[in-house]
Structure formats: structure tokens, C-alpha cells
Amino acid sequence: GIMFVTQVRAPLASCVDGNRAVAAQVVLAHVLSRLGTAPRAVGRALRDVRPRGPSSTPPGDLCLAGDEAAHEAARACLDGDAVKEAAKRVAKELDGLAQSVRDISALDLVEHVGAWGAAPETVPAFAAACLELDAMY
Questions:
Q1: Which of 45, 62, 101, 104 could be 97's S-S partner, Cβ–Cβ 3.0 to 4.6 Å?
Q2: What pTM, to 2 d.p., does this model score?
């Protein structure tokens, strides 16, 4: 899983001082949308296995849902071509793995990048608010 995080780190590096949640959302959406059923498995794992509580809930506007202009401004720090290339590389490598390993690796990627974008304790809520995991397949 860490190998895949390293591959998406380059496009994210330009957003360290920006809206990290939106940057994480965009990068993860590009990777996960290329992985068949893995996003649903990730969604189930985050809903069913990870504890939730008041401290695990990020602000409702974390990924600027409903404000396209603010979302566009927040993702301006990303190089779209670099994001797409990193997503293609990661997806290609993940596609070569057995489904169970691919699902676990995708979950690991969401946890690491989501923690970078929001906070470790908010990853399940970040995924629920910012990633449409069930709609990607």
C-alpha cells in the first residue's frame, strides 16, 4: 500500500499549503474510478470496520461540495496531467493483483491519502463526504 501512496505523493506535493482535502479527493477519485469493484469494498470497510464518533467527523464543507467555483480554485494547485498519469500507474499495478489484495491496497491508499487530506481520525467521514465510493462501479 505504501508504494502506491508514494506514487500519488508527487501530484499532491504542490497542494501542501492549499485545501488538502480537495486535493486528496481529486487524486483518490482518479485512482479509484479505475479499479472496478475496489471502491465499493473500500466503502464497506470504512463503514463497517472503522469506528465512528463525534471526533471522527470532519466539517461538512470539507471538500466544498456544492460550491463548484471554490472547488475549482482549491484543485488549481494540482497538475491534472500528473494526477492522471499517477492514477493510471497505480491502477495498472493494482489491477495486476488478486482482488482481495487490490481491495486491501485500495483501502490502504484511501486511509493514507485521506489522512493527509483531512486527519487520520476523520478518514471514514472524509471518504463518506468526499468520495462517492458506491457510485464508482
A1: 101
A2: 0.87
Q: Alpha helix locations (H) across 14-122?
A: 20-32, 38-48, 68-74, 80-95, 99-117
pLDDT at 65: 85
Q: Give the tens place of pLDDT for each residue, 8-47.
A: 888 999 998 888 999 999 999 999 999 888 888 898 888 7
Instruction: Please state the separation of Cα 127 from the chain's center in Å.
Output: 7
Q: Show the cell assigned to 43.
A: 466503502
What gap in Å lies between CA 46 and CA 110, rounded to an integer? 10
Query: Do residues 23 and 12 make contact, with C-beta atoms less than 8 angstroms apart?
Result: yes
Task: Tell which residue, 133, 114, 120, 127, has the closest CA to residue 8.
Answer: 114
Amino acid, single-letter form, for residue 4 = F
Q: Would you give the distance in Å from CA 137 to the centre of its chain?
A: 15
Percent of the chain scored above 70 by pLDDT? Answer: 88
User: Do the beta carbons of residue 99 and residue 137 sit within 8 Å?
Assistant: no
Q: What does the DSSP 8-state code read for residue 92? A: H
